[in-house]
Design goal:
heterodimer, A: 115 residues, seven-stranded mixed beta sheet, 0% helix, 57% strand, B: 109 residues, mainly beta, six-stranded mixed beta sheet, five-stranded antiparallel beta sheet
Chain lengths: 115, 109
């Protein structure tokens, strides 16, 4: 969905480095999510936020932190990257209002390689 | 842990044939959603079926839901080469989704 953007699209980093992945959306949605995707494991929820003041851990939050800087921005940080955090990371949004509240809209993904 | 488990993991068919993918889930859900992912790209929502619905159609897609068996199926009729993608089911509850591992569908021209 072009209304959900992620930067960077690709990143190579070294073990122990701190990195931030950013997500911005122009959809006006309140809810935002971070997932990681590993081959053969599908998508797993890392963190989610239902509004600027509401941040919640997902299934696999250890080693990650997030910041909801504004309604439109939700960043994911790896404080000290490790090789098993190598994955494809997706941001998603959903709308608090309307008839499609449960539908999620995904960004294009960030491919992260930790050496 | 995965909410949904898709079956089969991979499916290869000829153009024009129908493709059926199944999904089983573990816990209670408010809805079951199917998404499509082209290689390396973000997921795109296809269809949502609520827990009080049994069947839903959208174009060439037909989804069924059996809450007693905690299972759903996605049928794509008259498949096209452009349908080649991975398909994921996601169990929805409290505006969160828990996804399965996906089915890789290959439609051969």
């Amino acid at each position: 969905d072009a209304d959900v953007t992620q930067t960077p699209r690709n990143r190579i980093t070294k073990t122990g480095k701190r990195i931030m992945l950013e997500c911005s959306q122009t959809k006006g949605h309140d809810r935002m999510y971070w997932y990681r995707q590993d081959p053969g494991l599908g998508l797993r929820l890392i963190y989610y936020s239902f509004d600027v003041k509401d941040i919640n851990k997902g299934e696999i939050s250890d080693g990650y932190s997030v910041s909801r800087q504004a309604q439109a921005k939700f960043s994911l940080s790896l404080e000290s990257a490790i090789p098993n955090q190598t994955a494809l990371y997706f941001c998603a949004t959903s709308d608090l209002r309307g008839d499609h509240q449960e539908t999620q809209y995904f960004g294009p993904g960030t491919r992260l390689l930790v050496l | 842990s995965q909410q949904g488990e898709e079956d089969p993991q991979a499916l290869s068919i000829q153009e024009g044939e129908n493709a059926t993918m199944n999904c089983s889930y573990k816990t209670s859900i408010n809805n079951l959603q199917w998404y499509r992912q082209n290689s390396g790209r973000g997921l795109v929502h296809l269809i949502l079926i609520r827990s009080n619905e049994r069947e839903k159609h959208s174009g060439r897609l037909r989804v069924t839901l059996d809450t007693s068996k905690k299972s759903s199926s996605l049928l794509i009729t008259a498949s096209r080469a452009a349908d080649t993608a991975s398909y994921f089911c996601g169990g929805g509850s409290n505006y969160k989704l828990t996804f399965g591992k996906g089915t890789l569908l290959t439609v051969n021209p």
